[in-house]
Amino acid sequence: MGISEAKEIFSIYLKKKGLRNTSQRDEILHAFITADKHITVDDLYNVLKKRCPDIGYATVHRNLGLLCESGIADEIKIGNKMTKYEQKYGHKHHDHLICLKCGNFTEVNDERIEKLQDKLAEANDFKPMRHKMEIYGLCKKCK
Q1: What is the pLDDT, as a whole number, of residue 1?
Q2: Cα torsion angle, 24, 26, 28, 31, sign
Q3: Which has the closest alpha carbon to 70: 32, 41, 118?
Q4: Spatial separation of the C-alpha atoms in residues 1 and 5, rounded to whole Å
């Protein structure tokens, strides 16, 4: 997704929520989109602090939540230890293998699993709207 498209989506979302679009929100959005990887609040805050010395940690955290609500970002929790964020809008669906030791993420997609999930929903007269699968364990380096 390009910056201009993300800005438009975020701007529309903020307006619906009755929130202003600020220069700090623009900076957060830009830094998040250009990171183009799984990122923690700390990582994003450290990038932003260099460009916007007055930005607060809580502001970055709160706005990452708004990016998730708007559909631009997705939150991935690794137990109680860590939360990472990734771009959601404009990216193909995938699932994650998450290492509990080092926090490494591997993106995976298997059509057989996707079809099985659809079959399970249909067998239970359930209409799925979205899903995510996360498998926790140890990566090749950590086992």
Answers
A1: 60
A2: negative
A3: 32
A4: 7
What are φ and ψ of residue 99, in 5° steps?
A: -80, 125
Domains of the chain (ranges, CATH numbers): 3-87 (1.10.10.10), 95-137 (3.30.1490.190)
State the Cα–Cα distance between residues 38 and 1, nearest whole angstrom: 15
Which residue is associated with the tokens 């997705």?
Answer: 74
| Cβ atoms < 10 Å from Cβ of 58 | 10
pTM for this structure? 0.75
Write down the mean pLDDT value for the chain. 89
Q: What is the 3-state secondary structure (H, E, C) of 2-16?
A: CHHHHHHHHHHHHHH
Asked if residue 57 lies in contact with residue 41, where contact means CB atoms within 8 angstroms, the answer is yes
Report the distance separating Cα 29 and Cα 27, nearest Å.
Answer: 5
With contact defined as beta carbons under 8 Å apart, do 44 and 32 qualify?
yes
Candidates 123, 88, 94; CA nearest to 109 is 94
